[in-house]
Specification:
Shape: rod-shaped
Radius of gyration: 26 Å
Order of helices and strands: HH
Strand content: under 5%
Helix content: over 70%
Length: 82
């Protein structure tokens, strides 16, 4: 599900929890502003989560390269010892 669709679903759920009078007071413009705010918040949260995941993958790649270097050194030392 994309962010825009999910934001509309959240606003729709919010609208359903309001009475007709409350909806009238809020108006369509306020609900559209709410949609924009929700969409922005979801986008920021997803962006932050993806950024954090990328950092974790980069750290894992770096750790894996270090281990590979250590293994290669051990293999080289073993080959030299033979």
């Amino acid at each position: 599900m994309n962010i825009e669709t999910h934001a509309y679903q959240v606003v729709d759920g919010f609208q359903k929890s309001l009475s007709d009078e409350q909806l009238k007071v809020l108006g369509k413009e306020s609900l559209e502003e709410l949609h924009i705010l929700i969409e922005a918040a979801l986008g920021k949260a997803i962006s932050t989560a993806l950024h954090d995941t990328v950092k974790e993958v980069e750290a894992l790649a770096q750790s894996t390269r270090k281990r590979l270097t250590s293994i290669e050194r051990l293999e080289q030392n073993c080959d030299e010892a033979l």
